[in-house]
Write a structure and sequence with these properties.
With about 290 residues, the protein is mostly helical. The chain is built from 12 helices and no strands. Helix 3 (about 65-75) crosses helix 5 (about 100-115). The longest helix is centred in the N-terminal third of the chain and has 40 residues, at about 25-65.
Length: about 290
């Protein structure tokens, strides 16, 4: 009996403890149990993606119906700049064959994504919400509200300040035929080029205004602090102006304005992070 017991002990010692099971079907059951949550998550993700794509498609159709009116609205800064330079002059936008049609499709797609963003954000939140604690859900609510408003603030800055300034700057380089110059420079604007310019500026400034949200969320996660932002300020300023040069069209005016705006948002983010840190520290002190 003693020899048999020693043999059993040696056999069990040679086998890793995690594969010693009373029932050989235990391993298969564990695999199946782990596979079920994964499949449920994938099914849930597919449903959220389908709803988001459907929202974008419906918004695209609606925006395309009013795409000409939307494009006319975007041309207001150009029209005002032309009239301000030469009173009574008619603003002209040129287009190649089918260029206006494809420009309307592009505008409708971008506008459709913007219009459908609340639905997309809601579906994303509903997908990740089951894995969040109640205090984490409460912390996310303000940011879900702030994101579209900050994006609209970036669009308003482009529409009312940046774009008129850029157009006026471009028009200032024209030379009239009656000046006696050997060469006459005339601004020739195409529909697609104008749309690409204003959309690039809108997207760049819209996302730039999300900087306080991103940095504050990183502070809540404990990744950064206000002191780390202050110590990295000089490097952040260099990175900000490099990003501004990359995100904007190749004109120095819009690059400088975007860089200055990002710098101001960075300084505002330091204040926001400091406020969040004090609130978190107060909650932790009350919990103790």
């Amino acid at each position: 009996m003693t020899g048999n017991d020693d043999d059993k002990k040696s056999q069990s010692a040679d086998q890793p403890p995690d594969i010693i099971r009373d029932d050989p079907h235990d391993y298969e059951d564990e695999v199946e149990s782990s596979r079920a949550p994964l499949l449920s998550h994938l099914i849930e993700l597919r449903r959220r993606v389908i709803v988001s794509i459907a929202a974008i498609f419906i918004a695209f159709i609606v925006c395309f119906i009013f795409s000409q009116q939307l494009y006319d609205l975007l041309t207001v800064p150009y029209i005002d700049a032309v009239k301000a330079r030469n009173a009574g002059e008619t603003a002209v936008l040129n287009y190649k064959p089918l260029e206006l049609f494809f420009a309307r499709i592009k505008l409708s797609l971008i506008a459709g994504i913007m219009v459908a963003f609340p639905v997309i954000a809601r579906e994303l939140y509903l997908f990740v919400a089951p894995g969040l604690y109640s205090n984490e859900k409460k912390a996310i609510y303000p940011f879900l509200i702030a994101i579209p408003f900050l994006f609209m603030a970036g669009l308003a800055l482009v529409y009312y300040l940046i774009m008129p300034f850029v157009i006026q700057f471009a028009l200032s380089m024209q030379t009239a035929p009656d000046t006696g110059a050997e060469v006459t420079y005339n601004l020739f604007v195409f529909v697609g080029d104008y749309l690409s310019l204003i959309m690039a500026l809108c997207i760049a400034f819209g996302f730039a205004f999300q900087l306080p949200v991103v940095l504050t969320l990183l502070a809540i996660a404990g990744i950064i602090t206000d002191k780390s932002l202050v110590s990295a300020r000089r490097y952040a300023i260099v990175g900000i102006f490099l990003a501004a040069a990359f995100l904007t069209p190749p004109d120095p005016i819009s690059q400088i304005i975007l860089g200055a705006t990002l710098w101001g948002l960075y300084e505002f983010s330091i204040i926001a992070v400091r406020i969040v840190q004090k609130r978190v520290e107060a909650e932790e002190a009350n919990a103790e």
